[in-house]
Amino acid sequence: MKIFYNGSIITMNKQVETALAVGVDNGRIVELFNRQPDMAAEYIDLQGKWLLPGFIDTHTHSNSGGLYSMGVNLEHCQNLNELYERLRAGKLMGEMLIAWHLDEKELKEKRFPTAAELDKIFPEKAVLIRRVDGHSCVINSCAAGQIEAIQPLDSSFNGTFRRRANDQIVNWFHRSIDEEHILKSYDNAARHAIKYGHTSIHTMVGDGHESIEHYKLLQANMARYPIEFIPYAQCFNIDAAIEAGAPRLGGCILADGSFGSHTAALFESYADQPDNYGVLYHNDAFWEQIITRAHACDLQVAVHCIGDKAISQILKYYEKVQKENPKDLRHILIHNELTSDEMIRRMGDSNIVAAMQPMFDRLWAGEDGLYETVLGKERTLRTTRLRSLRDAGVIIGGGSDWYVTEMDALAGIDAAVRLHNPEERLTPYEAVQLYTSHAAWLSHDEHRLGQIAVGYQADFVVLEENPLEADDIAGINIIDVFKKGECKS
Fold first, then answer.
1. Contact between 176 and 205 (Cβ < 8 Å)
2. How far is CA 235 from the centre of its chain?
3. How far is the C-alpha of 451 from the C-alpha of 432, rounded, in Å?
4. Domains of the chain, first to last
């Protein structure tokens, strides 16, 4: 037995909120001590630090994030010349270059580079640049000539693509990666997760349309990773998901796009584009068929929906299947950004859950930020409504959408307690729940993950300070991470 002692233990279990020590055997918690234990065991001295359940991120693109970490990070580029210099210094993956995290609004020129400009640097190598939100991309002519899905190109071709073409292009690049690089991308993701205190992360596997790509490859290699990946069959192919033994369908199967790309579907037009209401990517009949069949097959469904019109569309069919055939499947609204009081009430009434990203608020919802620019101040107050959702009984799991934002649970917790709208803020304890006990609920793992309790997996993060009392939660140092009682940090 291992005994973790000499620290402050926050269990995230309301029945036994604290303990003096934790006993672990064969990767599971076997005893919580309310006095200093005195028995033969291996003692792990916490040295006065804080022990919590290991963090769980409920929405990552681990393959993409791990892959892009081997590419070119364009975050905070100031102008196109700097962007070109970063590309020139980037490392090729075979015959192609992948760059990511570009926000064209931060560039002096306020625009994407063109294909012609990229061609001058890379005339014979395929180049992909992904916007920070993942809903727009830029490619050069070499890439365009190889991707059959976007042929034929017309005279308006300038390298920038959105919506379905964006997905097709990105998937072509991803399919061009061999198995060695796929497994390495998950290695990178796992190391990144450990760095920020995670012991489990939900990850999307599939092209978002008909293929679950390397789902079986990941399943076969789970033991190689120091964390637990909780995979989603990210496709519309229900038969493929069932054949692979997947318990859930979706993740980033898209009901709409994003605010930054002006493709999130809205009931009222964009403040800065009065004729644009965004885009519903599929009609009602499509979603009714997918959600109804998946529900009948006992598959949990998770759909990306950002704008209020898209959320309403998906919510309607979640409600319908739950009313006609009640099941404890916990269908998920991914992102769930812009909501009304009435929609929140309906979510609570139908036992719908949400996977949300508090850092979206921190990065884009502040005064004069992206959300106010594209939505206006009043609608921005109706984004990331954590308090309202919680009060309505909606279980929320916290996530990062990594690679879109950093896979950093402490930053997400900090953002949740300091949302730009004070009425929607959570207490520190509630915010920690987003990444522990409530995150475990989303994947039906509430009896084995997310708490320090007897019978649970011994997944721990050791922090230098108490996140329930610290002034700067995001700045707390992570001391150690344990998965099944073994140190992984």
1. no
2. 16
3. 11
4. 1-54+451-489 (2.30.40.10), 66-175 (3.10.310.70), 179-449 (3.20.20.140)
